[in-house]
Design goal:
five-stranded mixed β-sheet; Aspartate Aminotransferase, domain 2; Aspartate Aminotransferase, domain 1; eight-stranded mixed β-sheet; 14 helices
Length: 389
């Protein structure tokens, strides 16, 4: 297990992003942690080593990333994985056949696909509920419920779960609260401080921020839970390589700066879209018209760059996707470049059409990941793309 340095907790977010969990290399003085590209470590004698035996279990570059993100999330333990889904898969291994998990109904399509198409084949049971309503969370709990998993803001409808209220319900029932914090990032939201047991991310997204690696990370405080997860890390092996760990660590150094720009641009574009198509068709928690804006403002310090807009028909959505020039049509999110996608056929294609329709993930829904370009240029791009629609 990899612990955050206690002395880093007193610093601000930008300072922690640059310094937490890492020190200049003792051998050379290198300011960046070395990429320790090795599969094994020479041992000093039988049963004697320098804390490292085999890279699946521990790697110094990976540990620097784990300490860093743990400090950003205000947690004691960090565990890095090969992808966001590798992280979720490993977290699910904390449980066993017969256990019951309550999950938000509007989560990333890959989360739903893994739970519904794979994990339940191993005896886990799931209830998917609208976690905006604490009463629905409470009603879904059973004597066998071991965890509550929420994503807030949700992908792609930007729904908000009251983390403190949800965590309180789970705690009273003896269940863990697991929060996918990818959309908010540690800069704008800290689930552990609101009562969650585990916060996790696809580090592919905002934490890395440059669209050049895959990764995931989980952060928690409980020592016993950390021991269990470390065992899973080593036994199941869904770990990132040293290079991907280093790239994510490079990303955290500018995370606070980037998130401010994502947020500034996101607010500007959401306001423009609201004027253009109406507040009922724009999904962004930073808008005062968002039905959960007050809750979002209470538990988040910023709203980021994720926006969805309802174009009403697949044809209009396709026209918008084909007309943009600065926004690139692509999967993923959270990079410095602006992306645009069609959830129904991309991120949520694995969700059954009837279920998508029930949730509100329509064929006309478009999702924007607003990057850090000049806001004026992004607005001009949208203005020309919307012309005539």
């Amino acid at each position: 297990m990899t612990r955050a340095f206690d002395e880093d907790s007193a610093f601000g977010m930008a300072t922690r992003g640059i310094h937490a969990g890492q020190r200049p290399d003792a051998a050379t003085g290198a300011i960046m942690p070395p990429i320790v590209q090795t599969s094994t470590y020479v041992q000093q004698g039988l049963g004697i080593n320098k804390g490292y035996e085999y890279a699946r279990g521990r790697n110094p570059t990976r540990e620097a990333l784990e300490r860093n993100v743990a400090a950003l999330e205000g947690g004691r333990h960090g565990f890095a994985f090969s992808s966001g889904m590798g992280c979720l898969t490993s977290l699910t291994m904390l449980f066993r056949a017969g256990d019951h998990i309550v999950c938000g109904e509007n989560v990333y399509g890959g989360t739903y696909r893994f739970f519904d198409k794979i994990a339940k084949n191993f005896g886990l049971e799931f209830s998917f509920v609208d976690t905006r309503d604490p009463h629905l969370i409470e009603d879904a709990m059973t004597a066998r419920t071991v965890a509550l998993l929420v994503e807030t803001p949700t992908n792609p409808l930007m729904r908000i779960t009251d983390i403190e209220a949800a965590s309180g319900i789970a705690r009273r029932r003896g269940a863990l609260t697991i929060v996918d914090n990818t959309f908010a990032s540690p800069v704008f939201q800290n689930p552990l401080a609101l009562g969650a047991d585990i916060a996790y991310h696809s580090t592919t997204k905002y934490i890395n921020g440059h669209s050049d690696m895959l990764g995931g990370i989980a952060v928690l405080n409980d020592d016993d839970l950390a021991v269990r997860l470390q065992f899973i890390v080593n036994a199941a092996g869904a770990i990132p390589g040293p290079m991907d760990s280093w790239l994510a660590l490079r990303g955290t150094k500018t995370l606070a700066l980037r998130m401010r720009q994502h947020d500034s641009n996101g607010r500007a574009i959401a306001a423009w879209l609201e004027q253009r198509v109406g507040s009922d068709r724009v999904f962004y928690a930073g808008l005062a018209s968002h039905p959960q804006h007050a809750l979002a403002a209470r538990q988040m310090s910023g709203f980021g760059g994720m926006i969805s807009v309802e174009m009403q028909t697949r044809e209009k959505a396709a026209a918008l996707l084909g007309r943009v020039k600065l926004f690139s049509l692509a999967e993923s999110l959270g990079g410095v470049e602006s992306l645009i996608s069609h959830p129904a056929s991309m991120t949520h294609a694995s969700v059954e059409p009837a279920r998508r329709a029930q949730l509100g993930v329509t064929d006309g829904l478009v999702r924007l990941s607003v990057g850090v370009e000049d806001a004026e240029d992004l607005l001009a791009d949208l203005d020309q793309a919307f012309a005539g629609l």
